[in-house]
């Protein structure tokens, strides 16, 4: 058990190291401006990105970035403000106002460096005209339990924001804008990462309202009117974008470490979406195929994947659990495997926080179900109430890293160590 856990944790550490911004600015820096260099940004990795930029930039700079509570790190020149995530708070609202003020002060000879990573959608909070912070908090809370994928969440967030969807870059103009992104979204679309505060967007307001209806999110007349009136910029001159870390980079780093350990790695995808428990069941089938038939890879092999699954709390479900999407994925996978020998797995969020708890995720092996029964844990009931955290906490199988200061979303590793012809009942 210890050896399997150590292997999985080593792979996760390799993935995290590849996702950090350190050293990622080399070869991507613009020439120094005639005027000032201003650094603005937001996200779970924003503080670490600001420090890495400071280390790479030869000239003076100043500015402000917003990160999640507990995700700050020391910087020399750029101020770091902490705020709430995933539901925005007054600290994020006030810091965003200051960012917009700094943006509007930039002149044509200035350079504005924008540092955006996952989490910026909640941390950069400036309600559109006609809305207030309470409106945005209620909308964010509804989105988080709706089952909507991150692309839809960010589409809605842009529509109700005075800073997202290119509006920050519009406020910065006529200064030059260079944006550096750490992607936490399937497909690495700059317009989606952090809701694209420096990326032009032509989204139709009616399509946003249609998505809200699709996920049964109530829309007041005031909210509908604000969305229709809040048009986004169609073009942004003097703006360029660089993506410096992605989910695929993290998976490839884990694959390299796996080869060094003697395992055959197979990356199943870096943009896996869907209900966490459904994805867990599907991946159990893939692991079983590898164990019994040697496909899609022969043991000893490692099945890697990333992306962002969702957990939907539907009407009539008991709810009330403490599990995040990674622990729910893992518990569903573990239950579906039924104690199959030679298979262990880890599922973690690369920001170090799975859901609202302080763990990154969890790990499991072929004896997890047996230990759960011995500990009086009802796995099926835990899944029904979305409380995978409770099961893994009782077994001592949570993975706790603390804030990692990066974010490329889910990291999942399934290790298949031996061939077998059947599963335990």
Question: How would you portray this structure in words?
Answer:
The protein has 425 residues and is an alpha/beta fold. Helices cover 38% and strands 18% of the residues. The chain contains 15 helices and 12 strands. The protein has a 6-stranded parallel sheet with strand order 3-2-1-4-5-6, sandwiched between helices. Strands 7-8-12-9-10-11 form a 6-stranded mixed sheet, sandwiched between helices. Helix 6 packs across helix 8. The longest helix is centred in the first third of the chain and has 18 residues, at 2-19. It is globular. The model has no long low-confidence stretch (mean pLDDT 93).
Please tag this protein with its features.
alpha/beta, 6-stranded mixed beta sheet, 15 helices, 38% helix
Layout: helices, strands, pairs:
Elements (H helix, E strand, L loop, with lengths): L1 H18 L17 E6 L3 H11 L5 E7 L9 E6 L6 H16 L5 E7 L2 H4 L9 H12 L5 H10 L7 H6 L3 E7 L22 H10 L6 H9 L9 E7 L1 H15 L2 E9 L3 H18 L7 E7 L17 H13 L5 E7 L11 E4 L3 H7 L4 H6 L3 H8 L2 E2 L10 E7 L9
Parallel strand pairs: 1-2, 1-4, 2-3, 4-5, 5-6, 7-8
Antiparallel strand pairs: 8-12, 9-10, 9-12, 10-11
């Amino acid at each position: 058990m210890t050896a399997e856990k150590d292997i999985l944790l080593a792979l996760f550490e390799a993935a995290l190291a590849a996702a950090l911004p350190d050293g990622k600015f080399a070869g991507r820096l613009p020439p120094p401006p005639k005027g000032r260099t201003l650094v603005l940004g937001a996200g779970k990795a924003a503080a670490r990105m600001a420090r890495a930029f400071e280390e790479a930039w030869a000239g003076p700079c100043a500015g402000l970035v917003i990160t999640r509570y507990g995700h700050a790190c020391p910087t020399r020149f750029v101020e770091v403000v902490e705020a709430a995530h995933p539901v925005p708070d007054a600290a994020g609202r006030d810091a965003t106002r200051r960012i917009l003020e700094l943006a509007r002060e930039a002149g044509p000879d200035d350079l504005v460096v924008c540092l955006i990573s996952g989490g910026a959608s909640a941390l950069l909070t400036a309600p559109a005209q006609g809305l207030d912070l309470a409106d945005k908090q209620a909308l964010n809370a509804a989105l988080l339990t709706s089952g909507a994928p991150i692309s839809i969440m960010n589409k809605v967030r842009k529509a109700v924001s005075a800073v997202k969807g290119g509006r920050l870059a519009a406020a910065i103009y006529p200064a030059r804008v260079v944006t550096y992104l750490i992607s936490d979204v399937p497909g690495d679309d700059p317009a989606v990462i952090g809701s694209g505060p420096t990326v032009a967007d032509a989204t139709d307001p009616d399509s946003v309202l249609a998505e809200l209806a699709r996920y049964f999110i109530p829309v007041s007349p005031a909210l509908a009117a604000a969305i229709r009136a809040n048009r986004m910029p169609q073009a942004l001159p003097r703006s360029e974008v660089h993506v410096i870390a992605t989910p695929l980079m993290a998976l490839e780093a884990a694959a390299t470490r796996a080869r060094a350990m003697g395992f055959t790695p197979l990356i199943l995808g870096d943009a896996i979406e869907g209900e966490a428990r459904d994805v867990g069941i599907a991946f159990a089938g893939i692991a079983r195929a590898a164990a019994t038939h040697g496909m899609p890879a022969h043991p000893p092999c490692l099945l890697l994947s990333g992306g962002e699954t969702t957990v939907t709390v539907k009407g009539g479900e008991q709810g009330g659990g403490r599990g995040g999407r990674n622990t729910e994925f893992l518990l569903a996978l573990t239950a579906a495997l039924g104690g199959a020998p030679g298979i262990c797995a880890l599922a973690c969020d690369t920001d170090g926080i799975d859901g609202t708890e302080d763990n990154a995720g969890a790990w499991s092996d072929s004896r997890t179900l047996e230990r759960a029964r011995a500990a009086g844990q009802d796995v099926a009931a835990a899944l029904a109430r979305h409380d995978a955290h409770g099961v893994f906490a009782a077994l001592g199988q949570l993975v706790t890293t603390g804030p990692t200061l990066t974010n490329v979303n889910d990291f999942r590793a399934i290790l298949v160590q031996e061939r077998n012809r059947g599963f335990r009942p």
